[in-house]
Amino acid sequence: MERTNPADGRVLRAEGLCKSYGKQQVLLDLNLTIEPGCIYGLIGRNGAGKTTLLSILTGQNTMDAGKVTYGGEPVWENPRALSELCFARELNATAETAQISVKEYLYAGQLFCPHWDKAMADSLIEKFGIDRKKRIAKLSKGQMSMVTITAALASKAPITILDEPAAGLDVIMREKFYRMLLEEYAATGRTFLVSTHIIEEASGVFERVIVLDEGHIIADRPTEELIDEFRYVSGEKTALDAALAGHGVQPLQVQELGAHKMAAVRGDARLFAALADDPALTVAGMNLQNVFVALCGHGDEEG
Ligand SMILES: Nc1ncnc2c1ncn2[C@@H]1O[C@H](COP(=O)(O)OP(=O)(O)OP(=O)(O)O)[C@@H](O)[C@H]1O
pTM of whole model > 0.90? Predict the structure, then answer.
């Protein structure tokens, strides 16, 4: 299939990014590289700074320190760089754009996005069954998500960023959305950066996952490689504690049920093989959601 709109090797890069709102520091000396031709997932807890990061990457928000470049050029107030980047924000009834109709919203997309694919926008809106004369404010939450997704896909921007695109969608529409994303990616090689809280569902779509926690990126890895660094190890409490201490392992997260204990452990194949060799222990794989909870669930332990 023809790849119509690749980023031609141009990289979106954030270096030393710092951002505060008043006294609240949200991003702390953050570095990130978005390579062309990849689907990235951005995950982080509520308030971790995902939207702030995405808006700074696309020149829609200021930073206090650091720089963001695309193809080596600063992004801020740079029409050439910005024309290659699409940031599809979540719509809501109070957004500035909420009083215009779907048709007007998509027309604005056409004016702002030089690679806009009108036929694709029309076909998606039709497929989603959305009345284009309706004002955005009068759409359901799911329909607002569909309009955002339509604009993101039809923008044909080499780097397309979607902030919580699946939030308002039911499970069937979410599956459909990820299928459309994969099809578009296969056809064009465009880069997508997608933030989501519905982690497990999206994990198969993300080639690479970026975890944002307390202003820092704590993981930026191919999804499978990241998942493979973690295991649940369980067994009788004293046997588990002794084994972990023997290997010098500090568990990330523990759950106890009576004399039984389960620990989320980060390590390598050698450690996991050694733990699996212990007849008193059981070693099991984790999924991306489990890994996220182990990495970012600090401070929320029960008891
Ligand atoms: N314009 C603003 N003025 C003041 N504080 C802000 C502003 N925008 C965001 N914040 C604060 O910055 C922090 C990060 O917000 P942000 O929206 O970037 O997080 P997020 O990871 O996208 O969160 P969520 O997953 O809940 O949408 C939050 O504590 C938020 O209250």
Answer: yes
